[in-house]
Amino acid sequence: MKNHLRSLQFLATRLVICFALSSAAFAVRATDRTQMGHNINVEPGEEISEATCFGCTIRIRGHVLGDVTAFGGSVIVEDQGKINGDATAFGGDIRLDKQVSVAGDVAVFGGHLRRDPAATIGGDATNFAGAGWMLLIFLLPIVVLGAFIAFVVWLIRRIMRPSVPATA
C-alpha cells in the first residue's frame, strides 16, 4: 500500500513539474514570472506581464499587466499594488490591502479572501473557502473514475466466469 501511495505522489509531482516547465516555456513576454517553490515579489515601481506560482507566495507592490495565479500559495497585494487582469489562488489565500486594485475577477478555491474595504475589484469576487472544495474539485473525479474502472472489471469477470450447469 505504501508503494502505491509513493508512486501516486511521484506521479503527481512529475505532473506539476511538467506543467510548470511547459508554462515557463510558453511564456510570451520576457517579463512574465513563473516560479515553483520560490516567492515572487513585484516591488513598487516595477511592472511585469503575468505572475504564476506553484507552492509559493506572490507579493505585489507594483503593477501586473495581466493575470496573477497561485497554486498552493497565496497572493498578497499591498502598498497601492495593481493587477490589470484576474487574481486566482488554488489552495491559498488572497489578501487585498488598502488602496490596491484588481481590474478583473478575484477567485479563491480552498482558502480565504481578505479584503480591505478600500480595495477595488473590477469584476466578481468568488471565495470557495475551506478544504472541502479542494477535495470536491480534485478528489471527486478520481473517485468517479475509480468506480467506473471497478464496474468494468466486475462486468468483465462476470462475463468471463465459466457457467456451471444446474444440478437436478
Structure report:
- By secondary structure, the chain is an alpha/beta fold.
- It has one domain (about 1-160).
- Helices cover about 30% and strands about 30% of the residues.
- It has helices at about 1-25, 130-160; strands at about 35, 40, 45-50, 50-55, 60, 65, 70, 75, 80-85, 85-90, 95, 100, 105-110, 115, 120, 125-130.
- A six-stranded parallel beta sheet has the order 1-4-7-10-13-16. Strands 2-5-8-11-14 form a five-stranded parallel beta sheet, with no helix packed on it.
- The longest helix is centred in the C-terminal third of the chain and has 30 residues, at about 130-160.
- The radius of gyration is 22 Å and the shape is elongated.
- The termini are far apart.
- The relative contact order is 0.09.
